[in-house]
Amino acid sequence: MLLYNQFKERELRKEQKLLILSAFPLAFLIFGILTSFKEGINVLEGLYDITRSPSILLTDFLKVGGVGASFVNAALVGFFNIYLLKRFKMRINGLLIAAVMTVIGFSFFGKNIINILPIYLGGYLYARYQKIPMMNVVLVIMFSTALAPLVSIITYGGIFSDGFNYVMGIAIGTLIGFIIVPLSSHMLRFHDGYNLYNIGFTAGIVGTVFTSFLRNFKIEVQPVNILYTEHNTSIAILLIVMFLYLIVVGLVINKGGLLQYRGILKYKGRTITDFTGLIGYGITFINMGIMGLLALTMVLVLGGVINGPVLAGILTIVGFAAFGKHPKNCYPIVLGVFLAGLFFGYDFSSTGFIITALFSTTIAPLAGHFGPVVGVIAGILHITVVTNIGVIHGGINLYNNGFAGGLVAGFMIPIIDAFKKGDH
Asked: Residue 383, Cα to own-chain centre: how many angstroms?
């Protein structure tokens, strides 16, 4: 039956897969417009405020431009990236699904429809320079928009005079897009595929270099903490509807998906674990919906606010539920974060703690490959590293947890290997 379902799933046309993904930006666009009317805030004014904000961690667009404008911004960024997938005839696999959902998620804090464009330009120029198809670099460039705040801080941070600031913002963004592709493949070796947010690690290195350069010119880049703090039930309802939608789509594609779902739990998650190819699109979409509901439930049980960073954390988990994450390899990492939080006295309802718990699942492959005990230890190490690493890059790398996850994995793997060799 499973082989039959996978054969049928291959008959899903690329356009159908893109339409399934497009439901998210479409729903966000409608929600954003309706919410703006309710808020009495002009969407264009909200978008203007969002595009002109420095965007460094943590700049919550729900606070900066309003809830409605933030959802419209996420929709625009989502449609733009889905268009690129169609334009360059990309094969829709698990990692591309993860990229789309991650980019949409971070459009609630840090990325906007303006500050990401120079990075794509840099990727295009790199492809032209190397004489390779643009489709070969689109995926990396989508993730590398983690450094979009650098474009914003250069342009709107008061560093350069009016007029020249735009030139420098575009130039720096283009440079990032040009150098990030070759860097990312080399950085993968450091953590050996156990950190799913590899570009987050790469962006952390690049961000640290750029921030250090700016500091030598006495230009200080410091993280901020601009957060939306209202409990918004309508956002939670929208997310529940969208995650249930993914489960229903999965069941339409694969009618036996729920019965076969446990098959996904046997995979360890280490890069490359593409669930669309290994177990089919139906079960993949079901896993995405289940992971989204679990992540949202955790936030609500802890009494957290669903704001920009939390939305990014939830949607990133949903995306990577197509590429490496499932409940079995994620829970030990999150448990480790909770144990460390309990020991160090963290406020479990705070946005900082919640997004750490959500994004810590970047190192889920450690738990998947080496077992839950190692996973718990990795989670403990992750929260201790991530809470101190942001100062190095000044908050210009949005994938701060990806940076921390790379360091944790790179630290643990040689030690684990040493103990394994000692057992022989």
From this structure: 17
DSSP-assigned letter for residue 92: -
**Series of mean pLDDT values for 10-residue runs along the chain (424 residues):** 46 81 98 92 94 91 96 98 94 95 96 96 96 94 94 89 92 95 81 87 89 83 87 97 97 92 95 92 97 98 97 98 97 98 96 97 96 97 92 86 93 88 52
Chain centroid offset of residue 141 CA: 13
CA 168 to chain centre: 26
Give me Rg for the CA atoms of the chain: 20
Phi, psi of 59 (to 5 degrees): -110, 100
Q: Tokens 């799913």: give the residue.
A: 196
Residue 232 has a pLDDT of: 95
Question: What amino acid is encoded at 284 in this protein?
Answer: T
Cβ neighbours for 70, distance < 8 A, ≥ 6 positions apart: 32, 46, 50, 61, 62, 64, 107, 108, 308
Tokens of 154: 């250069």
| CA angle (274 as vertex; 286, 298 as ends), nearest 5 | 45
If you search the block for the tokens 């901020």, which residue do you land on?
224
Amino acid at 94: G
Q: Tell me which residue of 382, 273, 392, 398 sits closest to 338, measured CA to CA.
A: 382
What is the Cα–Cα distance from 86 to 422, expressed in whole angstroms?
A: 51
Say which residues have a Cβ less than 8 Å from residue 403's Cβ, sequence separation at least 6. Answer: 200, 201, 203, 204, 205, 207, 389, 393, 397
Burial class (CB within 10 angstroms; exposed 0-12, middle 13-18, buried 19+) of 233: exposed
